[in-house]
Design brief:
It contains 11 helices and 12 strands. Strand 7 and strand 8 form a beta hairpin.
Length: about 400
């Protein structure tokens, strides 16, 4: 039965959509379209809205670190009342089944409500030269090296062309880059191949409103990295430490909105679920963080204040960053010292990886000062292995000086 919508309602909706587009374009400076997008910088952990600690077991501590992101972020002033229009705009788009209206941001929404992004072609020359130079430096100093490729939210670039007519090169870039690395003798762990081997469903591995992988996937990634350390570098890590059955889960349903969802609006894509995980077995760590030293267990990696279901989902700290990749000494393990040069995907992954190693440290190059000397840091750390772990969308970030990840492959 066809529904007759009063002309007055249609006029109001149309006017609201135009206002939403105007608001968005005030913020983005883009050419006026039917619908625009918003860019939102992640709140600083020290100023983000918090909540009561969700577990008495978790110490009330703040890391003081600014979370890093795999997306380019631009901090802009908020337009008063802007979010009302973003949500109204999103609600209209969802009702009309408009899946590609945010193409000016290279964001698209699949039929399953999964937000995906298109990425441009890159030669991979800069990244290849930098990684090869780092490997040669490590070889000269007797330090092992492993490159880890973290997948994005789709395995085939044709996925976007088939559904949206959009061209993306993210997997093509990764294919060419990893082939060059392997040809030069670099040990590579391609987690795209690993997830296929393990029969993983990529549609369940990521948040639908965020570009990051979820916590269960971060645990899986840690187990695969540990396996590569065993197989390729002679480590003897007990892989049973990463068995999901050895972890307690706590699940929130429809509780938070990722970075991509904040651009499009919760009314369009809804909220994401969240799973927190921690080991059932005993853990013991010394944490070394920005001059602070304290003793704790695995729960010290997790800031449960982030899990505030009463907070504004647009302004609160991203739940992805509730896990923090600290420098730790694991008193339950006697061997293995690893330095991870990583991105925001490693924030929840490294705490799990550290369960099988004596010492684990990490750095994110985009967060370091210009004076930071990576190679001196590596030598001073005394690590026996360096892991360079990046989501494949990092490849090509050097092509754009305004990209937040411009320095990520500056490995000198």
């Amino acid at each position: 039965m066809k529904r007759n919508i009063p002309k007055r309602i249609l006029a109001l909706v149309f006017t609201a959509s135009i206002l939403a587009a105007l608001v968005m374009n005030l913020r983005t400076g883009a050419v006026l379209t039917l619908a625009g997008g918003r860019e939102e910088a992640l709140p600083d952990p020290e100023t983000a809205s918090g909540g009561d600690t969700a577990s008495e077991k978790t110490p009330e501590k703040e890391t003081g670190k600014t979370p890093s992101s795999g997306e380019t972020e631009t901090e802009k002033e908020s337009v008063p009342g802007e979010q009302v229009f973003v949500d109204l705009n999103g609600a209209m788009a969802e009702k009309l089944g408009m899946k590609g209206i945010y193409s000016d941001l290279d964001l698209y929404v699949t039929d399953s409500g999964y937000i995906v992004k298109a990425y441009p072609y890159t030669s991979t020359d800069y990244e290849f030269e930098q990684v090869l130079s780092l490997k040669e430096f490590l070889d000269r100093n007797g330090i092992s090296f492993l490159y880890v490729n973290e997948p994005t939210k789709y395995l085939e670039d044709d996925t976007l062309m088939a559904e949206f007519g959009a061209q993306t090169y993210v997997n093509d870039n990764a294919d060419r880059f990893l082939e060059r690395l392997e040809g030069a003798g670099v040990r590579v762990l391609d987690l795209r191949k690993a997830l296929i081997e393990d029969g993983m469903d990529i549609g369940e591995m990521y948040y639908k409103t965020d570009h990051h992988w979820n916590v269960p996937t971060a645990l899986w990634g840690a187990s695969r990295i540990a396996g590569a350390l065993n197989e390729d570098l002679g480590y003897e890590i007990d892989l049973s430490l990463y068995d999901p059955a050895a972890f307690t889960k706590r699940i929130w349903e429809k509780c938070w909105l990722g970075e991509q969802g904040r651009k499009i609006g919760k009314s369009y894509v809804g909220l994401d679920d969240y799973t927190e995980m921690w080991p059932t077995y005993e853990t013991s760590f010394t944490f070394l963080d920005d001059g602070k030293v304290w003793e704790g267990d695995f729960m010290d990696f997790i800031n449960e204040k982030v899990y505030n279901t009463e907070a504004d989902v647009y302004t609160t700290r991203s739940w992805h960053y509730s896990y923090d990749d600290n420098h730790v000494i694991n008193h339950k393990q006697e061997k293995g010292s690893v330095l991870v040069i990583g991105d925001s995907f490693m924030a929840p992954c490294e705490p799990f990886l550290s369960l099988g190693l004596h010492e684990t440290d990490s750095i994110c190059l985009r967060n370091e000062k210009d004076s930071f000397d990576l190679r001196s840091y590596i030598l001073d750390s005394g690590c026996d292995t360096v892991i360079l772990a990046y989501v494949e969308t990092m490849i090509g970030s050097r092509d754009d000086p305004d990209n937040a990840n411009y320095m990520m492959f500056d490995l000198n």
